[in-house]
């Protein structure tokens, strides 16, 4: 399904030129947090008459349970409960309005208690120190690239680990350009050790939050340089994964070693513009993570934690 033919002479030449150009690029510590102007978002599915009726019914329902206007969290909740949000929940529950209503109501309760959009950046900044998880670049569809590098795991504080994941999800949503509603995750297992692998408990919490409170926000997840223990963990967490989510996970070729013999594996160069893809993944962007530059750029781009945004 995802097989690609061997590179032709022209493709090899183009890749060699890209590599040569990348070698000449100076190192930068500033991430790309603005999409290229030529991104092509995936078209939004057309709603048929029955789906529009479901949308109207749930819209009326959520208005009936929203916080009062004088509540301190009202503006944030109103910004979250857009038609786009409701449609994502309906899609996640295969257009079963009752199931979508229950799912959305659970998220509303969770957001009121957890306040995911108001997590204090200073509280979780230590989790970002090493660059184990950050945003940099966009794919061809304009989806923010969320880079994960387990080898830089630097914490055993599960509360902060989970809060940093949620913080990243919220910031990733703020980075999405018009017409884009999900993320492209790149999990780079290079040099990762078993001891650095997130605990099963943390993985389950991540999947629970992603699946139940951020439905349809995962566009695709690429796994690179996967070690033996990843497959062990993957097998353990698979029962907790939604089949739709599982289908979005793709294994990518190690560009340092050439293409795998597995025809289902993919190349990131086919999904990302070379200019926004890091050299480590086959692109030309010569980026090295630095917490000072990254944190400043991210907060400037996405605003303070109390900034009210519309979830589109």
From TrEMBL:
<protein>
    <recommendedName>
        <fullName>CRAL-TRIO domain-containing protein</fullName>
    </recommendedName>
</protein>
<feature type="compositionally biased region" description="Low complexity">
    <location>
        <begin position="1"/>
        <end position="21"/>
    </location>
</feature>
<dbReference type="InterPro" id="IPR052578">
    <property type="entry name" value="PI_Transfer_CRAL-TRIO"/>
</dbReference>
<dbReference type="InterPro" id="IPR036273">
    <property type="entry name" value="CRAL/TRIO_N_dom_sf"/>
</dbReference>
<dbReference type="InterPro" id="IPR036865">
    <property type="entry name" value="CRAL-TRIO_dom_sf"/>
</dbReference>
<dbReference type="InterPro" id="IPR001251">
    <property type="entry name" value="CRAL-TRIO_dom"/>
</dbReference>
<dbReference type="Pfam" id="PF00650">
    <property type="entry name" value="CRAL_TRIO"/>
</dbReference>
<feature type="domain" description="CRAL-TRIO">
    <location>
        <begin position="123"/>
        <end position="289"/>
    </location>
</feature>
<dbReference type="Pfam" id="PF03765">
    <property type="entry name" value="CRAL_TRIO_N"/>
</dbReference>
<dbReference type="GO" id="GO:0008526">
    <property type="term" value="F:phosphatidylinositol transfer activity"/>
</dbReference>
<dbReference type="InterPro" id="IPR011074">
    <property type="entry name" value="CRAL/TRIO_N_dom"/>
</dbReference>
<feature type="region of interest" description="Disordered">
    <location>
        <begin position="1"/>
        <end position="44"/>
    </location>
</feature>
């Amino acid at each position: 399904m995802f097989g690609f033919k061997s590179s032709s002479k022209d493709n090899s030449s183009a890749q060699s030129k890209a590599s040569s150009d990348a070698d000449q690029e100076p190192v930068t510590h500033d991430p790309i947090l603005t999409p290229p102007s030529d991104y092509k978002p995936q078209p939004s599915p057309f709603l048929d008459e029955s789906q529009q009726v479901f949308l109207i019914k749930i819209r009326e329902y959520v208005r009936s349970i929203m916080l009062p206007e004088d509540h301190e969290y009202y503006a944030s909740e109103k910004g979250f409960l857009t038609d786009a949000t409701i449609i994502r929940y309906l899609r996640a529950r295969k257009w079963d309005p009752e199931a979508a209503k229950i799912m959305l109501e659970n998220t509303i309760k969770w957001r009121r208690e957890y306040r995911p959009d108001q997590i204090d950046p200073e509280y979780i900044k230590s989790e970002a120190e090493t660059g184990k998880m950050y945003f940099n670049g966009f794919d061809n569809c304009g989806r923010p690239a969320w880079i994960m590098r387990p080898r830089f795991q630097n914490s055993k504080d599960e509360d902060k680990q989970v809060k940093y994941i949620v913080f990243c999800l919220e910031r990733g949503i703020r980075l999405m350009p018009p017409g884009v509603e999900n993320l492209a995750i790149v999990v780079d297992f290079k040099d990762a050790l078993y001891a650095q692998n997130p605990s099963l408990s943390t993985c389950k919490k991540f999947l629970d939050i992603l699946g139940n409170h951020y439905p349809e926000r995962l566009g695709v997840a690429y796994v690179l340089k996967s070690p033996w223990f990843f497959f062990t963990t993957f097998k353990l967490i698979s029962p907790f994964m939604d089949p739709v989510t599982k289908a979005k996970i793709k294994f990518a070729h190690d560009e340092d070693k050439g293409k795998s013999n597995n025809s289902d594996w993919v190349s990131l160069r086919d999904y990302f513009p070379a200019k926004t893809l890091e050299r480590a993944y086959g692109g030309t962007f010569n980026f090295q993570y630095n917490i000072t530059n990254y944190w400043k750029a991210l907060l400037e781009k996405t605003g303070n934690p109390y900034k009210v945004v519309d979830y589109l």
